[in-house]
Amino acid sequence: MKLTILFLSFIAHFCTSQPFFHLVGPSSLFGLNNGINAIECKKYFENVTDIESLNHHEFAAFEHCVFYFLANRAQQQVGSQGFHFGSAIHPIASMPPTYNDLRLSVSKITIQHFHLNEFMRDLNIAGYLELRWNDERLKWDPQQFKVQQIRIASANHLWVPFLTGQGYETALRNDYESMEVRRIDVRNTGNVTAIVGFKFATFCDDTDFKHFPDDIYRCCFYLEPMNQRSIVRLISDGQPVFTDPKYFRDYGWTLSGTVPLVYMDPSNVTQLNFCLNLQRSSSSLKTELRIPAWSCGILFLFVPIFTNIRIQLITKLFLLLLQFFTLLLFTNRVSPQLGSTANTPTILQVLELGLVLNVISIICTFCVLALTKLRIYNQPPWDIMINASNLINRFIYIFESASDYQDLEALELQKDPAADGAQLINASKKPPLVDNRFRSDWVGCFLAFHAVAISILSLAFLLGFVFIR
Predict the structure, then answer these.
(1) Are 109 and 61 within one domain?
(2) Which residues form a coiled coil (predicted)?
(3) Which domain holds residue 366?
C-alpha cells in the first residue's frame, strides 16, 4: 500500500514538473548538472519575488536560469523551422540573431597601453571597447523573472561579433591582434552590451617629419567584422578615442585620438577607421638638437663684431668645426629615422643653410684679407668706389677693422712729409708714396666690399630661416 502511494506521488510530481522541464530543456544541454539543476531553477522562478533579497551566489544562479530559459526557447524556435542541433551546441551561441543587416555599435574605444617602435614605424595598442547589438532571442518579460538585466557568465554561451584589423583569412594567424570578451550584459529588451578587450597593431605615417623633433606620428587602424562580415553593419557613436587614466602611461608621448568613422569598402564590408596622433612630450631631445643649432646660428650672425678680419676668419673656421660636429650629432640622432620619408627636418635645413653660408663667408673673408696685403696697386680706384667705400665704412662701424689700418697709418704719414724730415726725402722715393696712397684707397674699398658681403650673407641667413620655418 505504501509503495502504491509513493508511486502515485511520484507520477503527480512528474506531471506538475513536466512543463518546467520542458521550459528549461534537458540539463545536459545547458550544463544544469554543473551546480545548477532544474529543481533549483524551479525554486527561483516560483518563490523569488524580490531579487534584491538574493545573495551574490544566489543571484548568479538566478541569472543562469534566466539565460537557460532563453537558450531553450531559442532552440525550440529553430527546431520548429526544421533545424535540429545536437546536445553539444545550441543556436543562441552558434547562429547570429538575424541574417539580415545586423547593426553593431562600436563605442568607448579606450587605450590602456601602447608601444611605438620609432624606427620601424609600428604601433601596438591594448585596451577595450564596447559593442552593442540587439538579439531578439534574448527578450523576456520583466514581470515574469523580476529582473531587467542579467550578466552572461561565459562568452561561449552567446553569439558575439568580434572585430579584426585584417581579413578573416589572416586574422587568426596574426600574433599582434587579439580580442577577448571581458563582460556581457543583456537587457530584457534584447539589447546586448559587451566589453571587449583588444590588442591591435599597425604602421604609422610620419609625413610631418619636416618638424622633427616636434613631428606627429599618425597611426590609423581599420577594423572590420571577423565573422558574418556580409551582414554586420558597424556604427560609430561619434566619440573620440579615450585613454584610461588608471593604466595609461604616456612614456614621453602625447597621444590624441580621432573620432571613428565608418565606411564601406569595395567588397561590401563595413570598416571602422580611427587614428591616433603621437607627438613627443619630452624636451630632452628637443634641447639636445636645438642648442647646437641655435648656437651656430647666433655665432654666425655675431662674427662681424670682431673688428679684426683675421679674428673673424679664425672665428668662422671655429664655427665651421662646430657645424661639422653638430652635423655628426644630427646624423646620429636623425638619420636612422629618415627611411620612410623624403622630408628633411627644419632644424637640419637651418644647419645646412648656416654651413653653406659660413663657407661662402670664409671664402669671402679670406679673399679680402689676401687683397689687403697686396702692394701692386699702380692705379687708383674709381671715384665712385672711393666715395661708396667711405660712406659704407663710416656708417657700418661694426665691420671696420682698426688693426687693418695700423700699417696704413704709417703710409698716410708718408703721403704728407713732416717739416722736420721732409727735405731729406729724395725723388726716388716718390713712386712708392703714390703706390702707398693708392693701396690705402683700395684697402678701404675691399673692407667696404667685405662689409656688404657679410651683410648680404647675414640677411640671407635670416630670410632663409624665416622661409624654412
Answers:
(1) no
(2) none
(3) 285-468
Q: From CA 206, how far away is CA 343, in angstroms rounded?
A: 10
Write the pLDDT tens digit of every residue in 91-122.
788 888 888 889 999 999 999 999 988 888 88
By mean pLDDT, which of 151-160, 352-361, 431-440 is the weakest? 431-440
Q: For residues 105 and 132, give the distance between their C-alpha atoms in angstroms, rounded to a whole number.
A: 5
85's CB contacts (< 8 A; 6+ apart) are: 75, 78, 79, 91, 94
Are residues 254 and 362 both part of a single domain? no
Q: What is the pLDDT of residues 18-67, one digit of tens each?
A: 444 344 444 433 444 444 455 567 666 666 666 666 767 777 777 888 88
**Type of residue numbered 158:** L
- Amino acid letter, 160: V
User: Chain-centre distance of CA 405, in angstroms?
Assistant: 60
C-alpha cell at 296: 651656430
150 and 195 share one domain: yes
Average model confidence (pLDDT) across the chain: 75
DSSP for 278-300 reads EEE--SHHHHHHHHHHHHHHHHH
d(CA 131, CA 446) in angstroms, rounded, equals 79
**Taking the CB of residue 4, how many other CB atoms lie within 10 A of it?**
8
